[in-house]
Amino acid sequence: RAARRQLAPGLPHGGERGVTGLITSMRTDSLRISDEALSSARSYIEQRFGSEYKPQKARVFKSKKNAQDAHEAIRPSDPALSPEAIKKNLTPDQFKLYKLIWSRFVACQMADAQLNTSQVDMDNRGWLFRATGQSVAFPGFLALYEEGVDEQSDEDTSPLPPLKAGDRPKHISTEPKQHFTQPPARYSEASLIKAMEERGIGRPSTYAPIISVVLGRDYVNKEGKALKPTPLGEAVTDLMIDKFGDIVNLEFTAQMENTLDKVESGEADYRGILAKYYEGFAKELEQAEIDLDKQHIKVRDEETDVVCELCGRKMVIKSGRFGKFLACPGYPECKNTKPITEEVGAPCPVCGAKLLKKKSKSGYYYYGCEKNPECPFMTWDTPTKRVCPKCGGVVYKHYTKAEKKYLCHVPGCGFEEPLAERKGKKAKDEGAEKPAAKKTVKKAESAKKPAAKKTAKKTEGAEKPAAKKTTKKADATEKPAAKKTTKKTDTAKKPAAKRTTKKKEAADEQ
User: How many CB atoms lie within 10 A of CB 394?
Assistant: First the structure.
């Protein structure tokens, strides 16, 4: 449903109904596909790629055990609706999501790719060297979709040149490399979900919340694509395994998923399962409260290269209500703390010491002197690489709603220069002014020309009919003119008299 809501804006039909027209079954791990969808996909493949890319029979995949098979597999409702055809109606994220689902679905019904693998053995004075290469004989589904990998392999699978037995290869260079046993790579979001799938943990609707929770609670941090556990995450994990070992393990979680599936199908009663679970959990919880009474979880500190100026120890990173800060590990003997700062490579404009980038309690960054509080200089302005033309100091960028300018903070300098407007905004403003000026000119022209034209017409129309009318009046008798005047006078006087009478009656009543 979350993916459907994300895809809803900008679609032809709008809302969830419009999304249903693009993607079917967003909450399922089933691999079942309807015959109608298979037929549509095969027709599209033959039409776009050719008959050689369409296998003789449609591919049918078996769903995994305990899969949520009430709905079909996640697929596009109409394979003929390619991502490029609807790209203009989607945001970049929506387009990527739809393209991924559409490409994987169509590719699963395409013919297999055929690869030529070459292997060459070279004997050099009793030492055997081997080279391998790959070339694509028939792309098959690779013409549409190729799955990416998080970790790149060291093996070179580029195609080899044409070789035959007896060829003497030329030695170009030798590069000795030493390999060590490497630990398993850290989980990425994709590999973590794959591992949970293999162990039967979670369901498609719970994978995203699980990752959001461990990231949001600072149990892990993202370094590139890798998920690295934090000291807090390691401490909490150690504590939970120590006190609740029978619950915090992969077997229990996978078994609980199977048990809940039995409850859903009616094979088991949820009250008996809860009673059995809580009987052991209550004892463990009570014992944990006793063991941890008046104790704090010890989180391993992250040591830095910053030396405490009071006792000489290397300071460590701690977390508080306002974020992370530096603290002396000798607490409570040494209570020295300081904010985490970053050198910006610019001198203080007041005393010449190092200028540091700091974070306020409200979460905003500012710049201050390292000798604070002896030197009170601080500013919200951002230092730039420009040099002041007056004093040779650092030029700062002052950017607020009221003012946008470059300035120098050296006492007595006073250098200021207006900040050039952004190109996009400037072009937008110019574009807004030009139509306005054009519109004004048009209005002025339209006001003048029709007015002159109208006046000329009236003048001409007034003169000619007048002359014509005069001629007619001269030819005709004078009675109609007198009759017309009499009628006008009567109609003008009677309503006036009537209104006067009504007003007078109303005044008399009051």
Answer: 21
